[in-house]
Amino acid sequence: GESVGLHLPTLSVQEGDNSIINCAYSNSASDYFIWYKQESGKGPQFIIDIRSNMDKRQGQRVTVLLNKTVKHLSLQIAATQPGDSAVYFCAEKAGFQKLVFGTGTRLLVSP
Amino acid sequence: DGGITQSPKYLFRKEGQNVTLSCEQNLNHDAMYWYRQDPGQGLRLIYYSQIVNDFQKGDIAEGYSVSREKKESFPLTVTSAQKNPTAFYLCASSNPGTSTDTQYFGPGTRLTVL
Protein backbone atom coordinates (compact mmCIF):
# COMPACT_ATOMS: atom_id res chain seq x y z
CA GLY A 1 0.00 0.00 0.00
CA GLU A 2 0.88 3.65 -0.27
CA SER A 3 2.19 5.51 2.75
CA VAL A 4 0.86 9.04 2.88
CA GLY A 5 2.77 10.03 6.00
CA LEU A 6 5.98 8.31 7.02
CA HIS A 7 6.63 10.43 10.10
CA LEU A 8 3.16 11.26 11.35
CA PRO A 9 2.19 11.07 15.03
CA THR A 10 0.66 7.68 15.66
CA LEU A 11 -2.13 6.57 17.96
CA SER A 12 -2.24 2.84 18.66
CA VAL A 13 -5.39 1.36 20.18
CA GLN A 14 -6.95 -2.02 20.71
CA GLU A 15 -10.07 -3.04 18.87
CA GLY A 16 -13.13 -1.99 20.85
CA ASP A 17 -11.41 0.93 22.60
CA ASN A 18 -12.48 4.51 22.07
CA SER A 19 -10.01 6.67 20.11
CA ILE A 20 -9.42 10.38 20.44
CA ILE A 21 -7.51 12.21 17.72
CA ASN A 22 -6.56 15.82 18.30
CA CYS A 23 -5.96 18.79 16.06
CA ALA A 24 -4.73 22.26 16.96
CA TYR A 25 -5.77 24.86 14.43
CA SER A 26 -4.04 28.13 13.78
CA ASN A 27 -6.55 30.74 12.62
CA SER A 28 -8.82 32.21 15.29
CA ALA A 29 -11.08 33.42 12.46
CA SER A 30 -11.75 29.86 11.24
CA ASP A 31 -15.43 29.08 11.43
CA TYR A 32 -15.74 25.73 9.69
CA PHE A 33 -13.86 22.51 10.35
CA ILE A 34 -13.77 19.11 8.68
CA TRP A 35 -12.31 15.74 9.62
CA TYR A 36 -11.10 13.48 6.83
CA LYS A 37 -10.01 9.83 6.87
CA GLN A 38 -7.38 8.66 4.41
CA GLU A 39 -6.60 4.99 3.94
CA SER A 40 -3.33 3.92 2.41
CA GLY A 41 -3.18 4.66 -1.31
CA LYS A 42 -6.62 6.29 -1.42
CA GLY A 43 -8.07 9.78 -1.48
CA PRO A 44 -9.34 11.43 1.72
CA GLN A 45 -12.92 10.67 2.73
CA PHE A 46 -15.15 13.20 4.45
CA ILE A 47 -16.09 11.99 7.96
CA ILE A 48 -17.78 14.84 9.78
CA ASP A 49 -17.81 18.63 9.91
CA ILE A 50 -18.67 21.30 12.46
CA ARG A 51 -19.41 25.01 12.36
CA SER A 52 -17.93 27.37 14.93
CA ASN A 53 -21.35 28.07 16.44
CA MET A 54 -21.35 24.50 17.79
CA ASP A 55 -19.19 22.80 20.43
CA LYS A 56 -20.08 19.23 19.59
CA ARG A 57 -21.48 17.24 16.72
CA GLN A 58 -22.17 13.53 16.54
CA GLY A 59 -22.26 11.12 13.65
CA GLN A 60 -22.29 7.38 13.44
CA ARG A 61 -19.65 6.22 15.97
CA VAL A 62 -17.85 9.56 15.64
CA THR A 63 -18.05 12.79 17.62
CA VAL A 64 -16.26 16.04 16.90
CA LEU A 65 -15.57 18.48 19.72
CA LEU A 66 -14.57 22.08 19.15
CA ASN A 67 -12.90 24.27 21.77
CA LYS A 68 -12.55 27.73 20.25
CA THR A 69 -10.92 29.17 23.36
CA VAL A 70 -7.80 27.09 22.86
CA LYS A 71 -8.25 26.51 19.11
CA HIS A 72 -8.54 22.78 19.50
CA LEU A 73 -10.54 20.19 17.62
CA SER A 74 -10.89 16.52 18.45
CA LEU A 75 -12.37 13.48 16.77
CA GLN A 76 -13.66 10.69 18.98
CA ILE A 77 -14.25 7.27 17.47
CA ALA A 78 -16.30 4.88 19.57
CA ALA A 79 -15.62 1.12 19.63
CA THR A 80 -12.70 1.41 17.24
CA GLN A 81 -12.48 -1.31 14.60
CA PRO A 82 -9.56 -2.52 12.46
CA GLY A 83 -11.23 -0.85 9.47
CA ASP A 84 -10.75 2.49 11.20
CA SER A 85 -6.99 2.22 10.74
CA ALA A 86 -6.01 5.17 8.56
CA VAL A 87 -4.55 8.66 8.64
CA TYR A 88 -6.96 11.24 10.01
CA PHE A 89 -6.55 14.95 9.39
CA CYS A 90 -8.48 18.07 10.09
CA ALA A 91 -9.09 21.05 7.85
CA GLU A 92 -10.12 24.59 8.78
CA LYS A 93 -11.73 27.39 6.84
CA ALA A 94 -12.28 31.06 7.63
CA GLY A 95 -15.26 32.55 5.83
CA PHE A 96 -14.79 32.21 2.08
CA GLN A 97 -11.06 31.55 2.25
CA LYS A 98 -9.57 28.27 1.12
CA LEU A 99 -9.46 25.15 3.26
CA VAL A 100 -6.21 24.67 5.16
CA PHE A 101 -5.25 21.09 5.95
CA GLY A 102 -3.33 19.67 8.90
CA THR A 103 -0.65 17.00 8.49
CA GLY A 104 -2.61 14.21 10.13
CA THR A 105 -2.43 11.47 12.75
CA ARG A 106 -2.05 7.80 11.96
CA LEU A 107 -4.50 5.54 13.81
CA LEU A 108 -3.45 1.91 14.21
CA VAL A 109 -6.07 -0.53 15.50
CA SER A 110 -4.90 -3.94 16.60
CA PRO A 111 -7.27 -6.90 16.98
CA ASP B 1 -22.68 6.73 -9.15
CA GLY B 2 -21.86 10.29 -8.25
CA GLY B 3 -18.28 11.13 -7.53
CA ILE B 4 -14.84 12.18 -8.64
CA THR B 5 -12.65 9.99 -10.80
CA GLN B 6 -8.95 10.34 -11.44
CA SER B 7 -6.87 8.53 -13.98
CA PRO B 8 -4.51 6.87 -14.21
CA LYS B 9 -4.03 5.42 -10.72
CA TYR B 10 -0.28 5.07 -11.32
CA LEU B 11 1.81 7.07 -13.77
CA PHE B 12 5.47 6.85 -14.61
CA ARG B 13 7.32 9.66 -16.29
CA LYS B 14 10.78 9.98 -17.70
CA GLU B 15 12.69 13.12 -16.88
CA GLY B 16 11.98 15.89 -19.37
CA GLN B 17 8.50 14.66 -20.25
CA ASN B 18 5.21 16.39 -19.67
CA VAL B 19 2.36 14.27 -18.36
CA THR B 20 -1.33 15.02 -17.88
CA LEU B 21 -3.45 13.74 -15.01
CA SER B 22 -7.17 13.48 -15.54
CA CYS B 23 -9.91 14.54 -13.10
CA GLU B 24 -13.62 14.26 -13.80
CA GLN B 25 -16.58 14.92 -11.52
CA ASN B 26 -20.31 14.36 -11.94
CA LEU B 27 -21.35 16.11 -8.73
CA ASN B 28 -22.27 19.29 -10.60
CA HIS B 29 -19.75 21.17 -8.46
CA ASP B 30 -18.57 24.55 -9.66
CA ALA B 31 -15.12 24.47 -8.05
CA MET B 32 -12.31 22.01 -8.60
CA TYR B 33 -8.89 21.73 -7.00
CA TRP B 34 -5.56 19.99 -7.42
CA TYR B 35 -3.42 19.09 -4.42
CA ARG B 36 -0.06 17.47 -4.01
CA GLN B 37 0.62 15.15 -1.07
CA ASP B 38 4.10 14.21 0.12
CA PRO B 39 4.93 11.98 3.09
CA GLY B 40 4.67 13.78 6.43
CA GLN B 41 3.14 16.92 4.93
CA GLY B 42 -0.35 18.31 4.68
CA LEU B 43 -2.07 18.75 1.35
CA ARG B 44 -0.61 21.57 -0.69
CA LEU B 45 -2.75 23.41 -3.20
CA ILE B 46 -1.44 23.53 -6.77
CA TYR B 47 -4.27 25.14 -8.73
CA TYR B 48 -7.97 25.72 -8.29
CA SER B 49 -10.86 26.74 -10.48
CA GLN B 50 -14.10 28.25 -9.23
CA ILE B 51 -15.81 28.40 -12.61
CA VAL B 52 -15.38 27.18 -16.16
CA ASN B 53 -12.64 28.93 -18.15
CA ASP B 54 -11.12 30.44 -15.02
CA PHE B 55 -8.45 29.16 -12.65
CA GLN B 56 -5.98 30.52 -10.09
CA LYS B 57 -2.58 29.47 -8.86
CA GLY B 58 -2.34 27.87 -5.48
CA ASP B 59 0.64 27.74 -3.18
CA ILE B 60 2.90 25.56 -5.36
CA ALA B 61 1.87 26.21 -8.98
CA GLU B 62 5.36 26.37 -10.48
CA GLY B 63 5.94 23.58 -12.99
CA TYR B 64 2.24 22.78 -13.35
CA SER B 65 -0.53 23.90 -15.69
CA VAL B 66 -4.29 23.35 -15.82
CA SER B 67 -7.30 24.01 -18.00
CA ARG B 68 -11.02 24.18 -17.25
CA GLU B 69 -12.88 23.97 -20.53
CA LYS B 70 -15.77 21.97 -19.09
CA LYS B 71 -17.44 22.06 -15.70
CA GLU B 72 -16.85 18.34 -15.23
CA SER B 73 -13.16 18.23 -16.08
CA PHE B 74 -10.00 19.78 -14.63
CA PRO B 75 -6.85 18.14 -16.07
CA LEU B 76 -3.45 18.85 -14.54
CA THR B 77 -0.26 18.84 -16.61
CA VAL B 78 3.01 18.24 -14.80
CA THR B 79 5.66 19.86 -16.96
CA SER B 80 9.36 19.17 -17.23
CA ALA B 81 9.91 22.41 -15.28
CA GLN B 82 8.62 20.74 -12.11
CA LYS B 83 11.85 19.76 -10.36
CA ASN B 84 10.50 17.12 -8.01
CA PRO B 85 7.24 15.78 -9.40
CA THR B 86 7.18 12.39 -7.68
CA ALA B 87 4.17 12.61 -5.36
CA PHE B 88 0.55 11.61 -4.81
CA TYR B 89 -1.82 13.97 -6.62
CA LEU B 90 -5.36 14.54 -5.42
CA CYS B 91 -8.24 16.25 -7.17
CA ALA B 92 -11.20 17.64 -5.26
CA SER B 93 -14.42 19.48 -5.99
CA SER B 94 -16.88 21.59 -4.03
CA ASN B 95 -19.69 24.09 -4.30
CA PRO B 96 -18.27 27.41 -3.14
CA GLY B 97 -20.36 30.42 -2.33
CA THR B 98 -21.26 28.97 1.03
CA SER B 99 -19.03 29.24 4.03
CA THR B 100 -18.98 25.46 4.46
CA ASP B 101 -17.72 24.60 0.99
CA THR B 102 -16.86 20.98 1.82
CA GLN B 103 -14.35 19.49 -0.57
CA TYR B 104 -14.72 15.92 -1.78
CA PHE B 105 -11.72 14.06 -3.10
CA GLY B 106 -10.96 11.64 -5.88
CA PRO B 107 -8.91 8.44 -5.39
CA GLY B 108 -5.59 10.04 -6.39
CA THR B 109 -2.85 9.48 -8.95
CA ARG B 110 0.60 8.34 -7.90
CA LEU B 111 3.23 9.91 -10.19
CA THR B 112 6.76 8.55 -10.21
CA VAL B 113 9.66 10.01 -12.17
CA LEU B 114 12.04 7.37 -13.46
Characterise the protein shown here:
- Chain A is mostly beta strands.
- Chain A has strands spanning 10-14, 19-24, 32-38, 45-51, 56-58, 62-67, 72-77, 86-93, 100-101, 105-110.
- In chain A, the strands form 2 sheets. In chain A, strands 1, 3, 4, 8, 9 and 10 form a 6-stranded mixed sheet that branches. A 4-stranded antiparallel sheet of chain A has the order 2-7-6-5, with no helix packed on it.
- In chain A, strand 3 (32-38) and strand 4 (45-51) form a beta hairpin.
- Chain A starts with 9 loop residues before the first strand and ends with a strand.
- Chain B is mainly beta and 114 residues long.
- In chain B, 0% of the residues lie in helices and 48% in strands.
- Chain B is built from no helices and 11 strands.
- In chain B, strand 4 and strand 5 (44-51) form a beta hairpin.
- Chain B is globular and about 40 Å long.
- The chains are: A mainly beta (111), B mainly beta (114).
- The A-B interface holds A 2-8, 31-32, 34, 36, 41-46, 49, 51, 89, 91, 93, 95-96, 98-104 and B 4, 6, 37, 39-43, 45, 48, 58, 88, 90, 96, 99-108, 110.
Short summary of the structure?
The complex is a heterodimer of chains A (111) and B (114). Chain A is mostly beta strands and 111 residues long.
Q: Could you spell the SSE succession of chain B in H and E letters?
A: EEEEEEEEEEE
Q: What helical percentage do the residues of chain A reach? A: under 10%
**What about the largest sheet of chain A?**
6 strands, mixed
Number of helices, where a helix is a run of at least 4 consecutive DSSP H or I residues of chain A: 0
Low-confidence stretches of chain A: 1-5
Shape of chain A: globular
General form of chain B: globular
Radius of gyration of chain A: 14 Å
The low-confidence runs of chain B, each spanning 5 or more residues with pLDDT under 50, are none
Order of helices and strands of chain A: EEEEEEEEEE
First and last CA, distance of chain A:
20 Å
Please tally the β strands of chain A and state the result: 10
